[in-house]
Amino acid sequence: MLQIGALTLQTPLLLAPMAGHCDLAFRILCRELGGVGLASTDLLNSHALLRGAKRSLELAATNEFDRPCGMQLYGNWSDPLPEAAVWAVDHGAQLIDINMGCPVDKVAKKHGGSLLLCQVGDTVQLAGRIVNAVCKHTNGRVPVTAKIRLGWDPDRFVAPQLARQLEDVGIAAVTVHGRFTCQMFSGEADWNRIGEVVEAVKAIPIIGNGDITEPHHPRDRMRQTGCSGIMIGRGSLRTPWMFSQAWHLLQTGTASTEPSFNAKCRVILRHIELLEKYVSQATALDCMHKRISWYGKTMGHCKPMKDAVRLAKSTLAMRDAIEPWINKDREVCPSLGFGPQLTHN
Ligand SMILES: Cc1cc2nc3c(=O)[nH]c(=O)nc-3n(C[C@H](O)[C@H](O)[C@H](O)COP(=O)(O)O)c2cc1C
Q1: Chain segment 78-121, per-residue pLDDT in tens
Q2: I need a surface site. Which of 150, 219, 242, 315 has the fewest CB within 10 A?
């Protein structure tokens, strides 16, 4: 369990926000597979939310199967982030996260994201205003967190002092992606520096993030750094069952078995089903056309299946491409917690 302010997470494993990937369907899929303590929306623009822009409302969509749900906001010091945070609470967020790490030009050059790492004093003030607004609105029930990088570049390793100052203004937890902004996604996440952030704060949980790709990584990284939780991004696109495996390992000390080929096919079918439920056919097709290669990376030789999914013109055709690959005589996936119980409509 991981305590973030008044919110108790059932596991210390968090699904990372990833724009274009962590929509409602994928968040629910990961939760159904087990082991996810918290999942959040992708980054949401404060102005767009407040004026009710259609795309932002779609990105902010959540429901009772998506709990607890964080909503991640981005903006700069003069943007209406406190107001957007209150809006998010009123639209289903159990946690508000402030994006202080996005390195993408269109965000970091003017609107926020990593830009906030460059003016620590102003950013801490902004965080304090958001905390106050949310605290007043919810009576302290909804925590506000921040997701940061180590700093803009190695000459500006601000993460330890920033985390400490964010704690002082009421930020309830800080997630640290162990890269500098200038690295974008290259090189390796620096977990030693994440450990320095853990040392710097008084009591709030630090959640480590970066290059978690195997079920044993969360346990190893928590041991190495003393961080309280682990956030998993790209690894979950390939193996959304990794949360369940990592959680099993954390609880029991023993590794769980790799899901069978059949079980993986079932996961893909379930993902398609959830997409059908929550997004348009066009969006569902677009999503699965891209995602099938991530899934395929752990499925051995299945090129004909992947090709057929990529060429499919409807989600029904996608199912028809996958179904024949399931060997019905060998249907077992006990360690996934994934089976007929997942039937919500
Ligand atoms: C395609 C993509 C989109 C991302 N979008 C967001 C985002 O909306 N908000 C955010 O805080 N981080 C975002 N990130 C960063 C991830 O949350 C995470 O910090 C990063 O990928 C490192 O973790 P990983 O190595 O486990 O993927 C994104 C990363 C990727 C690859």
Answers
A1: 999 999 999 999 999 999 999 999 998 888 777 799 999 999 99
A2: 219
